[in-house]
């Protein structure tokens, strides 16, 4: 039995076209955030990815656990935000983005994220006054597309 091959690193600012194309397709993703005890909290989300800015975006309700985890990590002195990962897969294709997440509340940023979501997922999110944006500064990308 051969050992597992190493992760397939991708330049997060200049990914190959098949990888970027995979991130444009409509796929449900997961977001993994750290709980206060350090254990992973994994939830399904929609994600948009902009390699030119080095950012992935997740829309969320202000009172969600994922938002609380990101805020708690910043409050606990873990740095400017939480270390998180977003992932998607289909068959043997997969893609993961890792980075530092912060919660953004600026209406213009949320609206821009909603437009990106609509572009990827084919529908505009329903209006929600509790909506915030989890913005992930991508530091690592891996996958096989």
From TrEMBL:
Keyword terms of this UniProt record: Oxidoreductase
Domain named Pyridoxamine 5'-phosphate oxidase N-terminal: residues: 20-140
PANTHER family with a match to the protein in the record: F420H(2)-DEPENDENT BILIVERDIN REDUCTASE (PTHR35176:SF1), HEME OXYGENASE HI_0854-RELATED (PTHR35176)
Protein name: Nitrilase
């Amino acid at each position: 039995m051969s050992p597992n091959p190493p992760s397939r690193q991708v330049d997060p600012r200049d990914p190959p076209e098949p990888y970027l194309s995979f991130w444009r397709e409509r796929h449900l993703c997961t977001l993994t955030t750290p709980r206060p005890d350090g254990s992973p909290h994994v939830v399904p989300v929609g994600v948009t990815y902009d390699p030119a800015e080095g950012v992935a975006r997740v829309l969320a309700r202000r009172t969600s656990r994922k938002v609380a985890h990101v805020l708690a990590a910043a409050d606990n002195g873990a740095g400017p935000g939480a270390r998180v990962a977003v992932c998607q897969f289909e068959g043997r294709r997969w893609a993961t983005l890792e980075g530092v997440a912060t919660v953004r509340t600026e209406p213009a940023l949320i609206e821009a994220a909603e437009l990106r979501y609509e572009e990827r997922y084919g529908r505009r999110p329903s209006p929600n006054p509790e909506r915030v944006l989890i913005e992930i500064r991508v530091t690592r990308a891996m996958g096989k597309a």
